[in-house]
């Protein structure tokens, strides 16, 4: 599962590091606060710009699960795709998926470009009801400053040929896991690997550390919750 992130083309280049660490591109999420008002908005606006509602696609989904609203992109600047809008447990509408038409997958950048195209072209009169997540994340932005500092203390000073086997490096490593579990905030696996690679760790060692992190967090959570 984790080794899909070992593709270096997916990971940030060194010049994308800032004071918070690696700024890794991530899939954005979009939420619409007033779900009922959005339904009314869609009913009166089947098409806007390069986006048009596709009721035929929606009907295909009716027998497989909860109803969703679908829009198709008809422009040429971006790859053809459909965007799907569902309702969550908080009565909000949100983008549940963006599916390429005729392609096997979308890159993170391509996905976000389509999402923001739909947002700007179709939701231009509904912008006050919209919230989106960031397109880039760091360890600090997704956890906290203490965890980021603990990671940097280990990653930038540990012996990169022995991982965390040295007692002093092991203590720094355990501190990362401790701070994450105590704060109940966890480093995304792909982000952890990206940070390690950017700090100069070998790919195999970085992968092993990600596995060790996952195991260490699970073990400490088990004993903490008993």
The gist of it:
The protein is built from 8 helices and 11 strands.
Report on this structure.
The protein has 226 residues and is α+β, with helices and mostly antiparallel strands. It folds into 2 domains: 2-22 and 139-224, no CATH class; 27-133. The chain has helices at 35-43, 55-61, 108-122, 139-142, 145-155, 167-183, 189-198, 203-224, and strands at 17-18, 21-22, 24-25, 30-32, 47-48, 51-53, 69-73, 81-87, 93-100, 130-132, 136-137. Strands 5-6-7-8-9-4-10 form a 7-stranded antiparallel sheet, sandwiched between helices. Strand 5 (47-48) and strand 6 form a beta hairpin. The longest helix has 22 residues, at 203-224. Residues 1-20 have low confidence and may be disordered.
Q: What's the arrangement of secondary structure elements?
A:
Elements: E1 17-18, E2 21-22, E3 24-25, E4 30-32, H1 35-43, E5 47-48, E6 51-53, H2 55-61, E7 69-73, E8 81-87, E9 93-100, H3 108-122, E10 130-132, E11 136-137, H4 139-142, H5 145-155, H6 167-183, H7 189-198, H8 203-224
Antiparallel strand pairs: 1-2, 3-11, 4-9, 4-10, 5-6, 6-7, 7-8, 8-9
Helix pairs in contact: 5-6, 6-8, 7-8
For the secondary structure, the number of strands is 11
Q: Give the uncertain stretches in residue-range form.
A: 1-20
Give the oligomeric state.
single chain
The whole-angstrom Rg is 21 Å
How would you describe the shape?
Answer: elongated
Largest sheet: 7 strands, antiparallel
